Amino acid sequence: MEHNLGMDPDTIQPLLKSLAETTHAVAADVIAVDDGVPLASWGRAVNAGVQGEALSEMRDTIRDVTSDVANREPDDAIAEALIPGFTLMAHGLWHKSFRGSLCIMRPDDQPWTENDRALLKMAADLCRSVMEAGNISRDHGRRLDLLVSYVASELMGVSAMDHSETTYRVLGELGRFFEVDTCYLRHNDPQLRASVLVDEWPRREDVPDPDPLGVISWDDPISAVTKDLREPYVVRPRGGPESYQARVEAGSGIHQASTAMVPLVSGDTTRGVLGFVHFGDRDWSRAEIRALQAIASLLVQLDARVTAEESLHHHAYHDELTGLPNRRSFVETLTDILKENPEAPLTVLFADMDRLKTVNDVLGHSIGDLFIQAVADRLRESVRPDDIVARLAGDEFVIVLRGVDNVEHAERIARRLLNHLTEPLDVGGHVVSRSACVGLAVNGGNSSAMEELLGNADVALLEAKKRGGNSVVSFNDDLRWRLLDRADLEFRLRTAIGEGEMRLFYQPEFDLRGGQITAVEALVRWQHPERGLLSADSFVSVVEEINLSAELGRWVLNEACRQLAEWKRSSIPAPDVVRVNISAGELISADFVGFVGTLLSRYGHKPQELGIEITESTVMRDIDDVLATLLGLRRLGVSIAIDDFGTGYSSLSHLKQLPVHTLKIDRSFVSTLAHDSGDRAIVSAIIRLAEAFNLSTVAEGVEDIDTVTALLQLGCERAQGYLMSKPVSAADITKRLAEPGDYLGSSWWMGRS
Ligand code: C2E
Ligand code: CA
Ligand code: CA
């Protein structure tokens, strides 16, 4: 059967070779539907060791795959198949009466990738263009076919990186082939509203500045010719617009020239023009022009691909808002630097603007965005060009100072940066200034360098934030130890509860007039196997962060109830109430109220014998969820106290809606009460407020006798504190409860009431 490929099969060989090389295939063939025999091929399966039965099995498979893809829609025309030892992939190919496939194969231990599929699709497109060019230029022999095929194969492996180099090489190839004096590629740039010279062959020497042929505005009459050109356009001496000849003369000094211009058409738009200039007169045959059209369409395809690739790359590696490199790009760059030299002298600096959220909340997100852009600009301009500035997220930036390996030097730069960063900025008519924090780590040349370096800078940043606005902290041994400590804590905490390492201590609460114990507060301790008894402050926040607070909380509640039952069973007078601290995570954990109810009945306690303490900040964090739980607890009859009261005054306004019974006045006001008139006013106000809402008050952190006097004057009659008792073990509480006359430990106390 005759197959009308529309050209000499050898013409397409350079393209097949390029395809095979770029996809690492052992063979690339054009196959016709009916017989599965290659019409054009590069490489041979036999050379790759396929023989005998395997070879005929392979032919069958290829035939099946070919008839499959040849019958598909063009946008879904790829199929893969396996034959012993090999994998093959085929793309449908259609041209006039020809139906077949473009087919590549390679050993089956290398599965095809997305990139291979894209290359095969592109090659199939190119193949069709070459077939079309072959069809129209047959009358002029094979030379034009070969040219088109050559260009197609040149363009096959092009990526965004070597795009311009290839363009120049192709222009040279075309220029020499058509024996013109110069040829060029211009693109229409809708943003500049101009036609822009992409490249020319040969490149001119002594180009005037500005180049009259460089950027030509669409308003320029000369652009009228090329801007919306749809069909090839030939200008010969003594023809065409005067201004055009004049322009060529200004740019090149030549005044007698003939020009052929072939538009780069993509759909409805003209993307640019491929131009050929011959000094003196020259005729262009139809076949030549149509070969050029085929090449122009190859260039359009290439352009679309490279643009897509570039924008993909840009989006993948840049932060949209600031145009700075993003996290991925930063990580890759730093990895490369450290791979080359793990001891590269450099410092990583994390910068974080304080409370950017308030800018967003108060001034709106568009001002917030402008602010971030301005910050990015400031960072960029504060460092040297070869330093790296990237945006990691939100208001987090990272800077790599290259060549800086000395802490003092790095800190000096960081402080300079900070000063620049925190100068007031005018954004959208608002003057915004924010403090910032910087954490830095100098590269020490460790093996796990990159992760460790970033981790260290991050720890330093956290420390800087802890110290408050505008601080610079560099990572040091002290922080390193704390880090190890923290990792160890986290690790052991996960098993500590189950292993029975938790303890409850109890701090009594007293009636300041009579000296009786009115309640005990359960405070958790961790009997660490190596470090001894750890106080709550050293691990409770970690428990919250690693989501163990519900587990720990249930243990604490159960143990406190169990201990109360034990006190009640003994012959001594048990405390009236045991108070338990509840964290935010616990409070909103599933069926918290149900759990408390079960405990009460398990140990036979009256609900009012159990008190729950929640901090003011917990209440504010999630007021709706918290409120639902609190209402449930109140229905049970459990008493509720707000802990650390006064530290977040927003809740004053919510007091009315919260079902609470007691306010525990925060230690920070109480401890200075006797000497600080401001704190005295605050405590006084809290007590008045409590009276107005019919709540009782308990003062925390009473450490001296003057405070007791002041509290009594202001009308607060209950308190806890080191003066009366530190938190102690259950056994110690039992002893004190058993000797009521002695537990205040001093005669002055009894004397006061
Ligand atoms: P908190 O609820 O405000 O507990 C009072 C803390 O202040 C206790 O520290 C106690 O030892 C300390 N304190 C009591 N009187 C004085 C005093 O006169 N002077 C000074 N300087 N300190 C005093 P602790 O036991 O380290 O507990 C710290 C925080 O950890 C507690 O603050 C509470 O928020 C939390 N916490 C303790 N136990 C638990 C628990 O079982 N569950 C939960 N979720 N949190 C707990
Ligand atoms: Ca408490
Ligand atoms: Ca407290």
TrEMBL record:
Domain of life according to the entry: Bacteria
Domain GGDEF: 344-477
Pfam families named among the record's database cross-references: EAL, GAF, GGDEF
InterPro entries in the record: Biofilm_reg_signaling, EAL_dom, EAL_sf, GAF, GAF-like_dom_sf, GGDEF_dom, Nucleotide_cyclase, Rev_trsase/Diguanyl_cyclase
EAL domain mapped to chain residues: 486-741
Protein name listed in UniProt: EAL domain-containing protein
Source organism (scientific name): Phytoactinopolyspora mesophila
